[in-house]
Design goal:
This protein is about 60% helix and about 10% strand. It contains 16 helices and 16 strands.
Length: about 525
């Protein structure tokens, strides 16, 4: 095994702890601490994801043309650290925007470089180890994600946002140090400059870009449109008071926080990745083969099953039934199996199909598919919002909205209230906070022409004050189970079409040579 691999794996473990720890609490922080509505929080989250997976092009160009991978990773890791510091110290919408912007630049910028840097450590005679090492790489990602996803929600709940966001920041500083410590062991591929531009315009470069654009933007993007909702709409679903978050282990009972169920994904990755790598794929290879694009097509179709499951659970809660969070866990099993088939395969595929001077650039191309997937989710969530015009808003116990026509409203329908409302929510202990966010219709009074509201935790919404004219109220054109079913049918269709398209692609393989390597001068370490 190349001697630089342990440093890369260690760096990735700590960096992913920082990223997923911050990401795990992001939607909860927005909805519970900054009074975002569920729709607004979903859109902000996916816009952040768009930026995270669009900025890899910046890192790729810096790496392949100017600085090389090692120097680019060190530089942008410091930007990344600065973003965590801002999130920890500035608890406001402005601080959130600036902190997420810096993290998007740092995290996104290093992504293609780190992924390609793994492959750069291998020579042609070691190419058979790439599949295994990318699996180790993915395991380190998910070990860090698992620990942080369990820990940071507890920190947010018990000690507040500063420590909850500061802890991932400390791990990012550690990640940067671990990577710097491996500087004498790395094979560092030098920037290609002219060769990059020449290869970009060459037939093989243009072919790689054209073919991979179709594969990643036309099909793989649909997987990410669904997968990244595990940290947004799935967390929002888990906040519903009708979802029983109790886990009975026999000897003890655990009450999960809404965002902690995300820890199921990394622990399942730790289980399923070795199972697929060492058992399932070798078995299939012996009898039917395991072409990369075939794995991706099967993974896309499998992804749809997970959204049919959470859609079913959402439908039961809309009918007033209590649903176990075990249904979300089952959906996580399915979508994680799909992730192993799609994400790990697509990452390795991006590296091997890229000409040698374009490794980071093509990996960034793959990562842009994640951004495109989040664009799909953002557009859908913006389109399903429908403004409402209540004729009166009445604070009290319960809080009510009056409309000219209330025939369209039904119990458990979601209502967003945003803006400077001038009204305060009164908690059971007498404490107050500004009204804002997403609420549910608890009852419809046809005689009075009003709808009464409750919280998403299924508790009465008690308020006081007088509503301001700046208050904005909206609902959704597509809600509940229909929302999840829409995405399920979308990715299922993409998988079926891709299984046909994949038959026409012939894979190639490009592996780096030591002729392209350089030692990192002491002055630049």
């Amino acid at each position: 095994m190349p001697p630089g691999i342990p440093y890369i794996i260690g760096n990735e473990l700590a960096e992913r702890f920082s990223y997923y720890g911050m990401r795990a609490i992001l939607v909860v922080f927005m909805t519970q601490y900054l009074a975002f509505s569920q729709s607004e929080a979903t859109i902000w989250y996916h816009q952040f994801s768009i930026a995270v997976y669009a900025t890899p092009f910046v890192g790729a160009l810096l790496s392949d043309i100017f600085l090389g991978k090692y120097r680019t990773i060190i530089l942008l890791s410091l930007v990344y650290c600065a973003g965590h510091v801002v999130l920890a110290l500035n608890e406001s919408r402005e601080g959130l925007a600036l902190g997420l912007g810096l993290i998007a630049m740092g995290s996104g910028g290093i992504k293609p470089c780190v992924s390609a840097h793994v492959g750069d450590q291998f020579q042609p005679h070691q190419a058979h180890m790439l599949e295994r090492v990318y699996s180790y790489f993915y395991l380190s990602i998910n070990l860090g994600a698992f620990v942080s996803t369990l820990l940071t929600p507890v920190l947010l709940e018990t000690v507040g946002p500063q420590v909850a966001f500061g802890t991932p920041g400390a791990l990012m500083f550690l990640a940067t140090f671990v990577f710097w410590a491996g500087r004498r062991e790395f094979i560092a591929i030098k920037p290609f400059r002219q060769r990059f531009l020449a290869e970009l315009k060459s037939p093989q470069g243009l072919r790689a870009i054209g073919v991979l654009a179709v594969i990643y933007f036309g099909f793989v993007a649909f997987f990410w449109s669904l997968f990244d909702q595990t940290a947004s709409t799935w967390v929002i679903q888990a906040q519903n008071g009708l979802m029983d978050k109790t886990i009975n282990l026999g000897f003890t009972t655990i009450e999960l926080l809404p965002s902690q169920i995300q820890a199921a994904n990394p622990v399942l990755i730790l289980t399923l990745t070795p199972l697929f790598t060492f058992l399932l794929y070798p078995f299939l290879r012996r009898y039917v083969g395991t072409p990369s694009l075939g794995k991706i097509a099967a993974g896309l179709m499998l992804t749809s099953v997970s959204f049919f499951i959470v859609g079913w659970a959402e439908g039961r809660m809309a009918d007033g039934e209590t649903v176990s969070i075990g249904w979300q866990f089952l959906a996580y099993v399915v979508i994680t199996a799909a992730e192993v088939m799609v994400s790990i395969t697509a990452l390795e595929f991006a590296y091997t199909q890229a000409p040698n001077a374009m490794k980071s650039f093509i990996v960034a191309f793959y990562l842009l598919s994640v951004s495109v997937g989040n664009v799909i989710t953002t557009v859908v969530n913006k389109q399903i919002q429908e403004p409402l015009a209540p004729t009166a808003m009445i604070a009290g116990d319960p809080t009510r909205l009056r409309f000219e026509d209330i025939a369209r409203f039904e119990p458990s329908q979601r209502i967003d209230i945003v803006g400077a409302t001038g009204v305060e929510v009164v908690a059971d202990d007498g404490s107050t906070r500004p009204l804002g966010g997403t609420y549910l219709v608890s009852a419809v009074d046809s005689g009075a022409g009003t709808v009464a509201l409750k919280t998403v935790q299924q508790e009465p919404l008690v308020t006081r004050g007088t509503f301001s004219a700046d208050t904005r109220v909206s609902t959704y054109r597509m809600t509940g189970a229909d929302y999840f079913y829409f995405f399920a049918w979308m990715v299922l269709t993409a998988g079926i079409v891709f299984s046909v398209v994949a038959r026409f692609y012939r894979e190639r393989q490009f592996i780096q040579s030591l002729d392209d390597a350089e030692r990192i001068p002491d002055t630049q370490r």
